[in-house]
Amino acid sequence: MRHVFSFSIIVFTICAAFVNAIHAQSSEPKLVVVIVVDQMRYDFFDRFGDKFEGGLKRIWDRGVVYSNAHHSHAPTNTGPGHATISTGKYPVKHGIIDNSLYDRQRHEEMSPVGDAAVKIIGVENDGALPGLSPARLKVAGLGDWLKKKNAKSKVYAVARKDRASILLGGKAADRAFWIDDLSTRFVSSTYYGKTYPDWAHTYVGKDMMRAEIEAGWHKKLPEEAYANLRPDDFQQEKGLFYADFPHDKSRMRRGLSDANKDLLMLTATPIGEKYVLDFARALVINEKLGSRDVTDMLLISCSMADAIGHHFGPESHEVMDYYLYLDLYLDEFLTFLDKQIGENQYWVVLSSDHGAQTMPEAVTLRGGEARRVLTSDFVHDIDSIEDRLLEEFGLENILIEHITSGLYLNYIETDAKGFSRKRICRAIAEELISLDYIADAFTSDELFSKTDRAFMTSFKKSYMRDLSPDVIFLLKKNTLLHGPTGSGHGSPYSYDTHVPVIFNVPGFKHAIIERKVSSVDLAPTLAALLGLKADKKVDGNVLTEMLSTQVD
């Protein structure tokens, strides 16, 4: 115990010195802006950075950049990624293990932010829209820690996606806003209060962005700027949109309604990001963020990046072009904050909830090994596995009842016939591993044991016995389980885990820190910078080497 105690004193001393040094260099900010760009890989700065000249360039040039930051949990998806960034804890602790959860009693999927006890406000709602809140988020996060320090501080979150906004905002946020698909309005829920702010009623995306929606999405730069990318008409980009530019309502899949075309132009192009940041600007003004004698917090998720990445893949013309527009829109937003708050009076932190997988066809085009497994083929393989096991164990009823990032099993018959669950799970895992595109499969018992195989630790950080699948599978590297077009994410491989972590804090000079760090480090580091008391059981560490980047 003596050595442990001594080590604790050392850690405490370093952190205390870190906090004291920060406060000596700069006063507390009027506003902290946390920006999470959905599906932003770190290497986008390497690939597109020389073309940035606005907000992204500014954030990079003035930031302390962690160039080797990774999410260390799996699956790497939107819900767990946002909750991990905001809480500094792994999904096994904060409770948001995936984008959807499976209710074993009701035999149905449920949202990780679903809450039947609250109602949606900001749009006419006869009860058809399900209630949403952070009720399933089990721990406090950045906004909660800020409010605990000073109850007068305001915390707001805004995004296209409900789960992104709600999970970033945390338990005690004044309000989280997200876009309702049908009306394209920003909505919220009664969890944050029964009254919807009057100023927000005017924000109707399909109306406010009508000119942009009708004009369509055109490349921001001349064609030669995209010369190093793969061909624009790549076959696997043909989904709801045509594969190549320009993208407008006349170049979409046949059969889409006008309303669906409007929604796609708003939420799957850069147009929607301008809408989100314009709303964030109005939020700052109307809620008087950063205009009082306390620190406020605004958390923004740029969700359109994810939709574009899924449609076109991370090596597409569209993904690069999205970031060129985001660079412009962030420049406009930061310039607004300069005037509204004061250039050195606010901080900006940038990160991402997960990365993205390069389309297998693009990998093979370069001579690499990769594979696309169609979802329909995978389901067929699972059906075949189930048929073999039903015969082997003499069963008659459904054994595999639901598929997500793993398999949920129905034990009613196996329990009645005396088969151990451990044996059933192991048999299924062995069948999965026999598939030539599966690298490994982990059973519930293994994930709760000291057993450790490649990438098992990543899944352990997200595994909750009551919510997680009974058997989890790991695809081989560069294997995509998807439809015939588009791309995805979710694996523990570096293309899905490697994300930017950048701190823009006055008093710190630009630096690139190459040490490998984790996304759970962001929240406790920002808390230390702000003098907040983070939860004792956070999984992340304060990134104390930032001390070396202080301006003399």
Jot down its keywords.
single chain, 552 residues, alpha/beta, Alkaline Phosphatase, subunit A, Gyrase A, domain 2, 11-stranded mixed β-sheet, 4-stranded antiparallel β-sheet, 19 strands, 16% strand, globular, disordered N terminus
Would you state the CATH class of the largest domain?
Answer: Alpha Beta
Report on the biggest sheet.
11 strands, mixed
Strand content: 15-25%
CATH homolog superfamily of the largest domain: Alkaline Phosphatase, subunit A
Number of helices: 21
Brief sketch in words of this structure:
The protein is an alpha/beta fold. 36% of the residues lie in helices and 16% in strands.
Explain what you see:
With 552 residues, the protein is an alpha/beta fold. It has two domains: 413 residues, 3-Layer(aba) Sandwich (Alkaline Phosphatase, subunit A), CATH 3.40.720; 107 residues, Gyrase A, domain 2 (2-Layer Sandwich). The chain has 21 helices and 19 strands. Strands 1, 2, 5, 6, 7, 8, 9, 10, 17, 18 and 19 form an eleven-stranded mixed sheet that branches. A hairpin with a 4-residue loop joins strand 3 and strand 4. It starts with a helix and ends in a 22-residue tail after the last helix.
Write the layout of secondary structure elements.
Elements: H1 2-25, E1 31-37, H2 43-48, H3 55-61, E2 64-70, H4 78-87, H5 91-94, E3 101-103, E4 108-110, E5 120-121, H6 142-149, E6 155-159, H7 162-169, E7 175-179, E8 186-189, H8 205-208, H9 210-215, H10 258-267, H11 271-286, E9 296-302, H12 304-312, H13 317-340, E10 346-351, H14 360-365, E11 371-374, H15 375-393, E12 400-403, E13 406-409, H16 412-416, H17 421-433, E14 438-443, H18 444-447, H19 456-460, E15 471-475, E16 479-482, H20 494-497, E17 498-504, E18 511-513, E19 517-518, H21 522-530
Parallel strand pairs: 1-9, 1-10, 2-18, 2-19, 6-7, 6-9, 11-16
Antiparallel strand pairs: 2-17, 3-4, 5-8, 7-8, 10-17, 12-13, 13-15, 14-15
